[in-house]
Write a structure and sequence with these properties.
The protein is mainly α. The protein is built from 8 helices and 3 strands, in the order βββαααααααα.
């Protein structure tokens, strides 16, 4: 577990400084007060000078908070990246500053990868279909830009399907969006960006298109109509031929 120490940093105009050491790495934090070595010794020994009594009380609170952090880490077994991560926890306890969040690789963000995948398509029609899916996803989930691949769960897909159903009752039409999402996740798996694959349980099931077969009666009526039309055309052609023959005899 980490160790800590309060010391006077002469290089920073005798700033009271906290140093945390973890796995032979160090992180330091200036606490906003300037004291001498003797003054710090009096504070740590419980015999501060009159002017440093308030600071001594504050230091006691700080040291108590550090011990609480150490106890919580030991109890939870939480892995710590390094002394800077521990110092983030200390700052949050001391000054109410939230620990810094590590920046997520853009490639691990689902929406960013999806858009990049869509833009890579050379066929304009294909690209527009993927971008249409992106538009519908953003309409459903305004926080999509912050989602990682692991956030696209079965529940997310199911709720998205319910959302699409409000404007697209056709299952086959909705399946287009889900095929696009599946293709993007498969590509991300191939790029070794994720191993998350919700489509193992979320199945894309097409609905058979109803056959529009004609009844026998309808076919017979159409055949009868076609035969009558052909007969009429033949009679018109015969009349035209007779008229042409009469003209030729004159």
């Amino acid at each position: 577990m980490f160790t800590y120490k309060l010391f006077v940093n002469a290089a920073r105009k005798n700033a009271l400084t906290l140093r945390i050491t973890y796995r032979r790495q160090k992180a330091e934090l200036s606490l906003g007060f300037c004291v001498s070595e003797d003054e710090l010794a009096g504070i740590l020994s419980g015999e501060p000078s009159a002017k440093n009594r308030q600071l001594a009380s504050l230091v006691a609170i700080w040291l108590g908070k550090i011990e609480e952090i150490k106890f919580d880490l030991l109890k939870s077994g939480q892995a710590v990246d390094g002394p800077k991560a521990i110092m983030d926890l200390v700052q949050a306890e001391f000054f109410g500053r939230e620990p810094r969040q590590e920046r997520v690789d853009d490639r691990l963000l689902f929406a960013r990868y999806f858009t990049s995948f869509a833009e890579s398509k050379t066929n304009g029609r294909t690209k527009s279909i993927y971008l249409a899916t992106m538009s519908r996803m953003v309409a459903y989930d305004p926080d999509l830009a912050e989602k990682r691949f692991e956030d696209i769960t079965i529940r997310w897909l199911t709720d998205f399907d319910d959302f699409l159903m409000m404007t697209s009752p056709s299952q086959n039409a909705r399946n287009i969006h889900f095929r696009n999402i599946r293709a993007v996740i498969n590509a991300a798996i191939d790029d070794e960006l994720t191993s998350h694959y919700p489509f193992r349980r979320f199945k894309i099931r097409p609905t058979p298109t109803k056959k529009r077969s004609l009844s026998v009666e309808t076919i017979q009526r159409r055949e009868f109509g076609i035969r009558n039309t052909i007969k009429k055309l033949n009679r018109q052609l015969e009349k035209a031929a007779d008229s042409f023959g009469n003209i030729a005899d004159i």
